[in-house]
Amino acid sequence: MEAALHPGFLAIIHDAQGYQGGLLITNSWSRPLEFRLTAPVQPTRVHQVLYGSTLRRYVMADVIGKALLDKAATPVQVLFVDASELLDLRRHLSVPVVWVQPTEPLSAGVVNDALSWSWGGQVLRASSHADREEASTLLARLGDMDLLEPFSRVREALGEARKRPAA
């Protein structure tokens, strides 16, 4: 019998309050097993100067994404992310990291690169060839799961958390 598959879905929102991340870990039927979120992270002007063009990638992957995954109690076998900057999380994980690209507008050349492929009407991009192969094998076990839908739940939960008054 195959071990249970627990995909993770990591989304980041960015607005005037800062960057905030949410991690939803589900079972293979897309039912939630664990949800974690961060407080908003607002880089200072000094951070902007020091990190330059790498600031967004650093905040999203190294600060928010890594913190969420380090605190998760449920191990994931594959991590789906909603931004290309989060592919950098692979440096901190031993599982494939796959960017579920927005489907609109699809450019003709998106799927032609060796790390990108189409699955279930969605364009995916892995962080490496090995991750693409491993993720493809795991995706076969997920059946027809809509990979974009869990990100909507994460973003909605983050929005609800932002509405709560501070304690």
Condensed summary:
The chain has 167 residues and is α/β, with parallel strands linked by helices. It contains four helices and seven strands.
Structure commentary:
The protein is an alpha/beta fold. It has one domain (7-163): archaeoglobus fulgidus dsm 4304 superfamily (archaeoglobus fulgidus dsm 4304 fold, 2-Layer Sandwich), CATH 3.30.2170.10. It has four helices and seven strands; from the N terminus they run E-E-E-H-H-E-E-E-E-H-H. Strands 3-2-1-4-5-7-6 form a seven-stranded mixed β-sheet, sandwiched between helices. The protein is globular. The termini are far apart.
What is the strand and helix layout of this fold?
Blueprint: E1 7-15, E2 18-26, E3 32-37, H1 45-51, H2 55-71, E4 78-81, E5 97-101, E6 116-119, E7 122-126, H3 129-142, H4 149-163
Parallel strand pairs: 1-4, 4-5
Antiparallel strand pairs: 1-2, 2-3, 5-7, 6-7
Structural class: alpha/beta
Would you report the number of β strands? 7
Count helical runs. Answer: 4
Instruction: Provide the β-strand percentage band.
Output: 25-35%
The largest beta-sheet arranges its strands as 3-2-1-4-5-7-6
Using the coordinates shown, work out and report the CATH topology: archaeoglobus fulgidus dsm 4304 fold
The termini sit apart by 46 Å
Quickly name the level 1 CATH class: Alpha Beta
Largest sheet: 7 strands, mixed
Order of helices and strands: EEEHHEEEEHH
The low-confidence parts are: none
Q: What best-fitting shape do the alpha-carbon axes yield?
A: globular
Kindly report the average pLDDT value: 90
